[in-house]
Amino acid sequence: MSAEAGLSGVMPGILEMLHAAE
Fold this sequence. Notes:
The chain has about 20 residues and is mainly α. Helix content is about 90%, strand content about 0%.
């Protein structure tokens, strides 16, 4: 469960970083 929750938190986090870098 922790792994799934972590991935769910990382996915959106990466997208935000990509958008911020743009």
